[in-house]
C-alpha cells in the first residue's frame, strides 16, 4: 500500500510503508492554533508577483513585439522566393528577373539581420530594466527585515537569491515575449501552410499533441531538479562566504585542506545537480528533435507523392518545406521556454519566501514620533529569548532615571547586550514591556527612536570607504568641521592626521586597514556626531590602551552630563565612575 506524503521542497510523493519508515526520524510534531492564529495569504506566483515589473515598459514591449512580427513576415515573404524561382523564373528563363529578384532577396536578408539586431538590443535593454527593479526591490526589502531574520540565515543563502532573480528576469522578459510572439506565429504560420496545402498542413498539425506531451512528461522533473540546483548553489555560496570571512581562523589552525575539502564536497553536489538539469534538457531536446526530423521527412515523403500526382508543383513543395520553419520553430521555442519557466517558478518561490516576510517598520506613521528623549527608561518584567532557545532575560525589572549613567556588568551570556538591543527595538520582548519617557517602546516610531540613540556596539563594523564617510554614516548635512570635532572628542583626530590621505583614507573591507582600537574610536566619533539623547556603549573601549581609554571617558563624561548613558563593560576602570552598577546574572530555570 502506497502512502501520500507532502514534503515542502518536493511536493506530494508516494512512499511504501517500508520506504517511509526509512526516512522518518520517529518524531511527530503536532501544531495547535492559538487564539491569535490568523490565516495567511498563499504565496503569490511568478507572474502574479513579478508581472508588474514589465507594465511600466509597455512601449518597449510593443516595439519588440512589432519588430518580431515584421521579422517573421519578412521571413515568410522570403520563403516564396523558392516557389517563384523554380516555378516561374527557371522554367521561363527569365534572366533579368532572376538578377532583380535575387538582389531584392539579399536586401531583404540584410534588413532582417538589422531588424534582428535591433530587436536583440531592445530585449537586452528590457532585461536590464527588469534586473534593476527586481534586484533593488529584493535588496531594499531585505534591509527592511528585522534583525531576527539575519540571525537565522547565512549571508550566502541571502545573496544566492540575487542570482535567482536573473532566472525570473529571463522568464518575464524572454518567456513572456516568446509565449506572446510564438503563439501568434504558430497560428499565422499554420494559416499560411494550410493555404499552401491542406494535406501537408494536416500532417504538421498531428505533431502538435506530441510536442505538448513532451512538455507534460518533463514538467515535474524540471521543477524538482531546479529546486535542488538552487538550494545547493545557496549552500555552496554560503560556505564560500563563511570560509573567506574566517580565513584568519582557517590559517591559524592549518585548516586550509579541511576547508578546501568541504568546499569541494558542496561544489561537486552543486555541479551534479547542474549536470542532471542539462542531461534532462538534452533528453527533452532529443525527443523534440526526433519528432521534428521525422515530421519533416514524412511531410517531404507525402509532398513528393503529391508532386508526382501533379497536385502541387515542386516549387510549392520546397516553399512549404521552407515555411515549416515558421511553424515548427515557434513550437520548439515554446518547448524550450518550458525549462526556463520551471526554473523561474522555483526561483520565484525562493524569492517569495523572503519577500513575503513582514518588514520591521509597519504602520510607522501611526506611531509616536519622538522629537527628544528625556531619558527615563523602565524595564517591567521583561523576558526574552532568541528564537526557540532558553530565556536570555527573565522577568527583568530596571528603572533608569533621566541623565543617569548606569553600568551593566555580568558574566558572558547574561543578556547585557540583549538588553540594549531591546532598547534599540532590534527585537521585541517576549513578555513584559519597555517604557521610554513613559511611552511603550512598541508604540514609538522606529526611525525617531533610533535617531535619538547613539550606539557603539561591541563588534564595530566599518564599511569599505573613507574614514570621513564612516564617521558621517547615517547622518545628513554634516560639515567637515563637525566631523573633525567628533573625531577629536573620540581621540581619533591625531591618528587620522598621521595617515597619508587623512580623512579620505580608505578603511578597507570591514575596516581591515585599521587596528581594533582605531575602529572603536571611529565608532565612538560616529555616535558622538549624532548628538544623541541616549548613549549606549557596549564594550566600546575594550581595545584601547588605558591612557586613551581614560581620555575618552573624560570626553564621554563631558558629553553625557545631561543625557542617559548605559555602559556595558568588564573592566572596573570603565564602570567605577558610573552612578549605578547593575549586575545581570544567568537566567534561572
Automatic annotation (TrEMBL):
InterPro entries: AAA+_ATPase, ABC1_TM_dom, ABC1_TM_sf, ABC_transporter-like_ATP-bd, ABC_transporter-like_CS, P-loop_NTPase, Pept_C39_ABC_bacteriocin, Type_1_exporter. This is Peptidase domain-containing ABC transporter. Residues 64-343 form the ABC transmembrane type-1 domain. Residues 377-588 form the ABC transporter domain. Keywords: ATP-binding, Cell membrane, Hydrolase, Membrane, Nucleotide-binding, Translocase, Transmembrane, Transmembrane helix, Transport. It comes from Capillibacterium thermochitinicola. It comes from the Bacteria. It is a multi-pass membrane protein. The chain crosses the membrane at residues 60-86, 98-118, 171-193, 199-218, 289-308. One of its GO terms (molecular function) is ATP binding. It is found in: Cell membrane. One of its GO terms (cellular component) is plasma membrane. PROSITE patterns: ABC_TM1F, ABC_TRANSPORTER_1, ABC_TRANSPORTER_2. The lineage of its organism: Bacteria, Bacillati, Bacillota, Capillibacterium.
Amino acid at each position: 500500500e502506497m502512502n501520500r506524503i507532502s514534503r515542502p521542497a518536493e511536493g506530494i510523493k508516494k512512499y511504501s510503508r517500508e520506504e517511509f519508515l526509512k526516512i522518518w526520524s520517529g518524531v511527530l510534531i503536532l501544531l495547535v492554533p492559538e487564539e491569535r492564529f490568523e490565516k495567511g495569504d498563499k504565496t503569490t506566483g511568478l507572474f502574479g508577483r513579478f508581472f508588474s515589473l514589465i507594465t511600466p515598459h509597455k512601449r518597449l514591449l510593443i516595439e519588440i513585439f512589432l519588430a518580431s512580427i515584421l521579422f517573421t513576415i519578412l521571413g515568410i515573404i522570403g520563403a516564396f522566393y523558392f516557389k517563384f524561382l523554380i516555378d516561374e523564373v527557371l522554367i521561363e528563363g527569365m534572366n533579368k528577373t532572376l538578377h532583380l529578384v535575387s538582389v531584392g532577396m539579399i536586401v531583404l536578408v540584410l534588413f532582417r539581420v538589422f531588424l534582428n539586431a535591433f530587436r536583440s538590443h531592445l530585449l537586452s535593454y528590457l532585461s536590464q530594466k527588469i534586473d534593476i527593479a527586481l534586484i533593488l526591490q529584493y535588496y531594499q526589502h531585505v534591509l527592511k527585515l528585522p534583525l531576527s531574520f539575519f540571525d537565522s540565515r547565512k549571508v550566502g543563502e541571502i545573496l544566492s537569491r540575487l542570482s535567482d532573480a536573473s532566472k525570473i528576469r529571463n522568464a518575464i522578459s524572454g518567456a513572456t515575449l516568446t509565449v506572446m510572439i510564438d503563439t501568434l506565429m504558430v497560428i499565422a504560420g499554420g494559416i499560411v501552410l494550410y493555404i499552401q496545402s491542406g494535406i501537408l498542413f494536416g500532417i504538421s498539425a498531428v505533431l502538435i499533441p506530441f510536442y505538448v506531451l513532451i512538455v507534460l512528461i518533463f514538467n515535474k522533473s524540471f521543477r524538482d531538479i531546479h529546486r535542488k540546483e538552487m538550494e545547493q548553489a545557496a549552500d555552496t555560496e554560503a560556505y564560500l562566504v563563511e570560509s573567506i570571512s574566517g580565513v584568519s581562523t582557517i590559517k591559524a589552525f592549518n585548516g586550509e585542506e579541511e576547508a578546501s575539502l568541504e568546499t569541494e564536497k558542496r561544489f561537486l553536489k552543486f555541479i551534479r545537480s547542474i549536470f542532471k538539469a542539462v542531461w534532462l534538457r538534452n533528453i527533452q531536446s532529443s525527443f523534440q528533435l526526433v519528432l521534428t526530423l521525422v515530421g519533416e521527412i514524412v511531410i517531404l515523403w507525402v509532398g513528393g507523392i503529391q508532386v508526382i500526382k501533379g497536385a502541387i508543383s515542386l516549387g510549392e513543395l520546397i516553399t512549404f518545406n521552407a515555411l515549416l520553419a515558421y511553424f515548427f520553430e515557434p513550437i520548439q521555442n515554446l518547448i524550450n521556454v518550458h525549462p526556463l519557466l520551471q526554473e523561474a517558478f522555483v526561483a520565484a518561490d525562493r524569492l517569495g519566501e523572503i519577500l513575503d516576510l513582514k518588514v520591521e517598520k509597519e504602520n510607522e506613521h501611526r506611531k509616536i514620533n519622538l522629537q527628544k528623549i528625556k531619558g527615563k527608561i523602565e524595564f517591567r518584567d521583561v523576558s526574552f529569548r532568541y528564537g526557540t532557545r532558553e530565556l536570555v532575560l527573565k522577568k527583568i525589572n530596571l528603572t533608569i532615571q533621566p541623565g543617569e549613567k548606569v553600568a551593566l556588568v555580568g558574566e558572558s551570556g547574561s543578556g547585557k547586550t540583549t538588553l540594549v538591543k531591546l532598547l534599540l527595538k532590534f527585537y521585541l520582548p517576549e513578555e513584559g514591556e519597555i517604557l521610554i519617557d513613559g511611552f511603550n517602546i512598541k508604540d514609538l516610531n522606529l526611525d525617531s527612536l533610533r535617531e535619538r540613540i547613539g550606539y557603539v556596539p561591541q563588534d564595530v563594523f566599518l564599511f569599505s570607504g573613507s574614514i570621513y564617510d564612516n564617521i558621517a554614516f547615517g547622518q545628513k548635512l554634516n560639515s567637515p568641521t563637525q566631523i573633525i570635532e567628533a573625531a577629536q572628542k573620540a581621540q581619533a583626530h591625531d591618528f587620522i592626521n598621521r595617515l597619508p590621505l587623512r580623512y579620505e583614507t580608505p578603511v578597507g573591507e570591514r575596516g581591515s586597514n585599521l587596528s581594533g582600537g582605531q575602529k572603536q574610536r571611529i565608532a565612538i566619533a560616529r555616535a558622538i556626531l549624532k548628538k544623541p539623547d541616549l548613549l549606549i556603549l557596549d564594550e566600546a573601549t575594550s581595545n584601547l590602551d588605558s591612557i586613551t581609554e581614560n581620555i575618552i571617558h573624560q570626553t564621554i563624561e563631558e558629553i553625557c552630563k545631561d543625557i542617559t548613558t548605559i555602559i556595558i563593560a568588564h573592566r572596573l576602570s570603565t564602570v567605577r565612575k558610573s552612578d549605578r552598577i547593575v549586575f545581570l546574572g544567568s537566567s534561572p530555570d
